[in-house]
Amino acid sequence: MKPRILIFAYGNPSRGDDALGPLLLERLEPRLPPPAACPVSLELLTDFQLQIEHTLDIPGREAVVFVDAHASCPPPYRFQAIEPAPTRSYTTHALTPEALLRVFQEVHPATPLPPCYLLGIRGHAFELGASLSDTAETHLQAATDWLKHLLLDTDYRQWPERAQSP
């Protein structure tokens, strides 16, 4: 049986603040209670970018949270509910969570889509070879603390009411 909640972080650790998603999972995991004591069952996944194959990670979940760095969201982060939407790209290189959800619906038409959210963490420096910026470090800490608190909420079905900026 799959864990009920999927936290999927993506980003390139070699591109400065683009590493915010994977870094959040690295910092979050040791701060969570052990699986037997955690109020909800979680799976933490990370990748460089979203792929069409990631639609296979969604069935059987009760909620999915995508975590990514964003250059334009309000600092320090934004948490919002997301819905399937067609991609405007001619390639899957820049697949958005909304486009992935749309592909999910096309591939699994009889499977209900769980509530899905995007936690965008404000980043500033995305150059190849750059390290995490000081500002992004502050935003990462705030987002990690907030997500840990959210995940420990025993009634994750109430997340839609919490799907707003801090």
Q: Keyphrases for this structure?
A:
single chain, 166 residues, alpha/beta, Rossmann fold, 4 helices, globular
Number of domains: 1
Question: Tally of extended strands?
Answer: 5
Mean pLDDT: 88
Shape: globular
SS element count, helices: 4
Largest sheet: 5 strands, mixed
Question: What is the first-to-last residue Cα distance?
Answer: 33 Å
Low-pLDDT windows of residues: none
Structural class: alpha/beta
Query: Numbering strands along the chain, what is their spatial order in the largest sheet?
Result: 2-1-3-5-4
Protein architecture, described:
The structure is a single chain. The chain has one domain (5-162): HybD-like (Rossmann fold). It is 25% helix and 20% strand. The protein contains 4 helices and 5 strands; from the N terminus they run βαβββαβαα. α1 (20-28) crosses α3 (134-151). The radius of gyration is 15 Å and the shape is globular. The termini are far apart.
